[in-house]
Amino acid sequence: MAIECLVLGAGQEVGKSCAVVTINGKKIMFDCGMHMGYLDHRRYPDFSLISKSGDFNNALSCIIITHFHLDHIGALPYFTEVCGYNGPIYMTYPTKALAPLMLEDYRKVMVDRRGEEEQFSSEHITECMKKVTAVDLKQTVLVDRDLLIRAYYAGHVLGAAMFYAKVGDAAIVYTGDYNMTPDRHLGAAQIDRLQLDLVITESTYATTFRDSKYAREREFLEAVHKCVASGGKVLIPTFALGRAQELCMLLDDYWERMNLKAPIYFAAGLTIQANLYYKVLINWTSQKVKSTSATRNAFDFKNVHSFDRSTINAPGPCVLFATPGMISGGFSLEVFKQWAPCGQNLITLPGYCVAGTVGHRLMSAKTPAKINVDENTQIDVRCQIHQLSFSPHTDAKGIMDLVKFLSPKHVILVHGEKPKMALLKKGIELDFGIPCYYPANNETVCIPSSLYVKADASREFLKSSLSPNFKFLNTSSRADIDLILNERTESFVQVCDDRVAEGVLTMQKNQHPKIVHQNELLVMVGGENHEVQFAYCCPVRVSDECKDVAPSPGENTPPVFDKCPWLHLLYTKLSNDFQDVTYQNDGDRLQIESFTVSVCLKEKCPHRTHVSPDSTSETVNFCCVWSMVDEKLAWRVISIMKNLELRTR
Fold it and tell me: What's the CA gap between 6 and 440, in Å, rounded?
């Protein structure tokens, strides 16, 4: 069976995450997001690729949402209430609690304030969330008789989860967005070591290796402090949930320590409401926040206050958090238009900005600059722009660490930029030898899946696998410099048991699969045992002092001549070059695996191909015999024997 992954969003881009994965006939949609940089048909995934007839209930087994960010959940109300999907939907408890706030806030900004065409209504959001089943971390959920899913902690934002899905023997992990390092209010991603055919991972920062978190925090605080100290205003465009809480904790603590008086404002009532959820769902936060919650809730900010929109141009310094984070609309865009022309002010961009947003244009701008905010409006930007990575996404090291830990058979990269994904793909394949793909939107990747067979084992096979396979390795060590100078060595034998069970898997009609010993197979099929052997008579040179012990050709072996010394000399020579094999020496022959060596005393041996008419007393011939399985070993030994010279002293 194969696993098919149809990427409907976040293929070679960041935005509208949506992947439809088919595992052994079960079709799962992972995330259902919208693209924040588009207002046309590119805003939503192309759902027609799932079902041409629009029968999504029969086409999909379930939908899994990893977290509440709009690029992962923004299209869900449209898909359920407008497109008509009524099947099961799964997400964590915090995601189910916070998603309606994010969706309603977006709807208000786009429809009520900007007058755009409504894609879904407040009623649609409410009805959509009624279809959702909330799951806890590491809770195993049986979607149906064959499909099993499980959520794992992902960091990133409150309630974010990686999801494990298994159908039969085939298993995958879809990461969504995750963070491999802890921050002030959330812990690092955690997942079990699993047997996986596929990992689908985000790659937002595919080539970025971040500096120390403390260095980034210090740089951010210094920039903000410098601006307010000079009487300027600081705009921090951020989403109401996630980075907003992280930066509020950072600034609130810094204001306390530095005894600063410049006000810090939150412009979104949504964030005040979200902070209440953070207090209730404190068990999903970092260990530090949980451990201090009994004495002080980390989300009770002393220096952060609600903002009165009428005071947007009031004199004096201040710090203002405004949504949305990419300045794609809403109040952050309104404030940007007012504050950007003043060189005393500062706009700091703490996270990733999708292409097509004002935030993305600012990331590459050098002030003073002209920035188009829409078709009819251009802003003269003279303020300072400070870009700093406070993104909750993992960096390249984190992605590589996760892939190494899970060691799947295949990797698919999504949620990233194409050139950077190509470099990460190369790194994964070179470092781990794992096939890696990064499909574009609307492309499908097919990979083979695992199929495990439960098999019985015969008594003969079990008996053979219990037999030890000892190997004796001669090893020498020199204790110290004095022993080295005196040429004294300490020898010892290392014994290891390289036990390998070799059998044959048989599958007969109306019977369970069974592993049998190879000798049993011949009986089962009524066959005869045929073994191919090879032979070669190999000459080995003998030094002058050894000539007197060699017999004359054609003579019977004299009583004083013994074959054993030749084998002993050969054994001594070979054992220095082959310390990783086991030898057997019974006096008449030397054996290594199936390769056997014995002294050849025949005048005309059929296996002798060399001609040495004048050197019969200068060589000793050894007959070598081996089976096909040890052919490489045999020629390796013979090549060494040909270059040997035997000496008795």
Answer: 10
